[in-house]
Each structure stands twice: as C-alpha cells, then as structure tokens.
C-alpha cells in the first residue's frame, strides 16, 4: 500500500478505507483483527496483527519508569483499538479518545506505508510535508535516497 488520500470523517468519526488499500489490508490481516493505535509522530497507525505483535513485544519490555520511553509505551498500548477485518469494507469508527489524541476532525489524510496506514489530521499532514521539504533543503545529504540508483 502506497499513497496518500484526503478523506472526510463523518459526524460519528467514521471513514471509508480507500479501495486501493482495502484489499491489501484484509489480505495482510490473515483474518485477525487490525490494530489502530496512537503514533508518537502525531498520527494514528492501523497495523495488521502480524505487524502489531512485534511492536507490542518491544513495547511490553520497556520499563514503565523509563522517563522517555515509558510514557510512549503506556500511551501506545492504552490507545489500542481493534478493528475486525470484516469491518474494513464498511466505515471504520475511530474511537473518540483516539480522534482527540490525533486531533482528527472532519478533514483527514490517509497515507499508506507498506502494510500499515497512517491517519493524519489535515494540518499535521501538511506540517509533515513541510518538515520533509525543510530537511531536504537544509541537509540534502542526509535525505538523498536516490544516490547510487
């Protein structure tokens, strides 16, 4: 899954996963629930279970008293919302707490990265794009992915 799609949340906080992402997500889920969780980058991320489980294992080993990683662990694990694969073809309801955490309102962007989707507040996505442009302008040597192609 690759690409970015602007979408709209309905009044209840639901959206329809774009068709070009839907089939891949259902296949990747292997009939297990998908996991939606807060991402420290400010988005929400929708994972197939097989991608969530290794992350869950790593998070679970973090010491709750680690002042930097403990809070991230706690928020990511506490914000977990399961979505049944059968629901992927319908509107997906994002829990109100998760919507609030990510600042999701009516206009959102859904970005596909391999087998995961990130769901962004429109302004946060614009900011992410601006940060990428600034990084390339200020330190092109660190983000030159084309070297050697």
End-to-end separation: 22 Å
- Which architecture would the CATH scheme give at its second level? 3-Layer(aba) Sandwich
Order of helices and strands: EEHEEHHEEHEEH
- Large-scale geometry: globular
* Low-pLDDT regions: none
The CATH class turns out to be: Alpha Beta
In CATH terms, the superfamily is Transcriptional regulator MraZ domain
Number of strands: 8
> Overall mean pLDDT score?
90
Radius of gyration: 16 Å
Question: What's the structural domain tally?
Answer: 1
CATH fold descriptor: Chemotaxis protein chec
What count of helical segments does DSSP give?
A: 5
Helix content: 25-40%
- Which structural class do the helices and strands define? alpha+beta
Measured by DSSP, the beta-strand proportion falls in 25-35%
Main β-sheet: number of strands, strand sense, barrel status?
6 strands, antiparallel
Overview of the structural elements:
It contains five helices and eight strands. With 149 residues, it is α+β, with helices and mostly antiparallel strands. It has one domain (2-121): Transcriptional regulator MraZ domain (Chemotaxis protein chec, 3-Layer(aba) Sandwich), CATH 3.40.1550. The strands form two sheets. A six-stranded antiparallel β-sheet has the order 1-7-8-4-3-5, sandwiched between helices. The model has no long low-confidence stretch (mean pLDDT 90).
Secondary structure blueprint with pairings:
Blueprint: E1 2-8, E2 14-16, H1 19-29, E3 34-38, E4 44-47, H2 49-60, H3 69-78, E5 81-83, E6 91-93, H4 96-102, E7 107-113, E8 116-121, H5 122-138
Antiparallel strand pairs: 1-7, 2-6, 3-4, 3-5, 4-8, 7-8
């Amino acid at each position: 899954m690759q690409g970015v799609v602007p979408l709209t949340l309905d009044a209840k906080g639901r959206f329809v996963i774009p068709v070009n992402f839907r089939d891949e997500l259902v296949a990747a889920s292997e009939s297990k629930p998908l996991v939606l969780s807060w991402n420290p980058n400010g988005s929400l991320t929708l994972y197939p279970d097989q991608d969530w489980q290794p992350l869950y294992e790593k998070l679970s080993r973090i010491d709750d008293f680690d002042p930097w990683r403990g809070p991230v662990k706690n928020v990511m694990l506490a914000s977990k919302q399961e979505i049944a694969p059968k629901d992927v073809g319908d509107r997906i309801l994002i829990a109100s707490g998760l919507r609030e955490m990510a600042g999701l309102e009516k206009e959102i962007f859904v970005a596909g990265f391999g087998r995961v989707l990130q769901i962004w507040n429109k302004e946060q996505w614009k900011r992410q794009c601006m940060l990428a442009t600034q990084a390339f302008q200020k330190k092109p040597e660190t983000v030159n992915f084309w070297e050697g192609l």
